[in-house]
Amino acid sequence: KTSPKPSAHVAVKSYACQRRSPLNHHNTFLTEPLEILAENAEFMENEGRNIAFRRSASVLKALPRVVRRMEDLKNLPCLGGHSLRVIKEILEDGASQEVETTKQSEQFQAMKALTGVFGVGVKSADRWFREGLRNPSDLIRTGQKLNHTQQAGVRYYNDLNKPVTKKEAEAISDMVGKAVRAVLPGAILTLTGGFRRGKEVGHDVDFLITHPEEGAEEGMMPKVLKWLEDQGLLLYQKTTRNSYLESRDGPERAPHHMDRFERCFSIFKLEQTKECSGTTAGAAGMSEQQSGPSWRAVRVDLVVSPYSQFAYATLGWTGSKLFERDLRRWAGQERGMSLSNHALYDSKRHHYLHASSEEEIFTHLGLEYIPPSERNA
Ligand code: TTP
Ligand code: MN
Ligand code: MN
Ligand code: MN
User: Fold this and answer.
1) Which of the listed residues 22, 100, 193, 294 has the most CB atoms within 10 Å of its CB?
2) Predicted pLDDT at 246
3) b or e along 14-26 (b: 16 or more beta carbons within 10 Å of the residue's beta carbon)?
4) With 80 as the cut, is the pLDDT of residue 244 above it?
5) Does the fold of domain 106-155 match that of domain 16-102?
6) Angle, nearest 10°, between helix axes 28-43 and 47-61?
7) Is ligand 1 within 6 A of the CB of residue 320?
8) pLDDT band at 252 (very low <50, low <70, confident <90, very high)
9) Among residues 138, 204, 259, 326, which one is catalytic?
10) Over 90: is that where the pLDDT of 177 sits?
11) Which of 220, 234, 166 is nearest to 197 (CA)?
């Protein structure tokens, strides 16, 4: 038998779904710079590099104490050469030259500003950047052709880039709860996303809606939206119909991380109390915000799931994104199973595994249960 590891070295598992990642951890001074490099790689559409830096940062989030020397990183998984160089530089010099240069770069700043517009992805942002555009005002000034989502994104740019507080999320939760119960008594509303993981602020508010009677949830979304619309609570909405059954094997199959639930990307009009409503300085084309300092715009995601898939939908929409990614990777690589936001399929035994709670899904996957507050990978 080999002697036990010196206690200074903690064992960290290599899949994020095998680790506990609390919201507040000890190594923000390392994870934030690594995540800047990840984001930059995302802007360059370098997915391999993006995920490598995200994984490195995530491993450091699971450590029980501050990293002080390179020695503290011995035996840790997922730390590639590039990440190690960055960490070493921060430990020795207090900052990484590469990270500082990236943060200052015109391209990084422009991509951040342009992808910060709701409805604008990396591809459009990159095209605009190469045409010399740097921020949302440039889009208006040069008369770029924008779709409806992007128009709303520009109009509410300032508000949508202001963090949503837990209190605001609760206020919206009350509104959505009322709408849901009004159109379908007995319906269940669950807060998902970052707020379910215990975050104090978010970029949006995510909800999952279901009803214990299978099928009763069908057709709910338009009714909920109409109720909210009639109350004057919606500034923007775009619904996507459920297409799970009809186009499962169709040519336009979504990437595996996207699901086929009926969902709505929306912008809510949230009345604010006096002390919360700071002045909203509007950039070009965003003047609508100035007339209404008594309310703010908030991004809200609504998803409707049949009761039979509710546990999978809840797990899938709670995040974090890296936690979800590793759950699917674990299922495939370690269990020969296929996990989606709808179901878990055992590819060896050729059957679907039913689950009525998240705990059951972890059990099916042979994983220790990790509560939402420790999925902040
Ligand atoms: P987000 O709302 O994008 O992220 P978040 O709530 O973790 O963080 P933030 O505070 O910035 O809002 O997504 C929430 C979860 O939903 C995320 O884990 C991934 C999942 N999701 C899907 O499963 N399918 C989708 O199509 C989208 C957009 C998200
Ligand atoms: Mn690396
Ligand atoms: Mn969210
Ligand atoms: Mn969301």
Assistant:
1) 193
2) 47
3) ebbbbbbbeeebe
4) no
5) yes
6) 170
7) yes
8) very low
9) 204
10) yes
11) 166
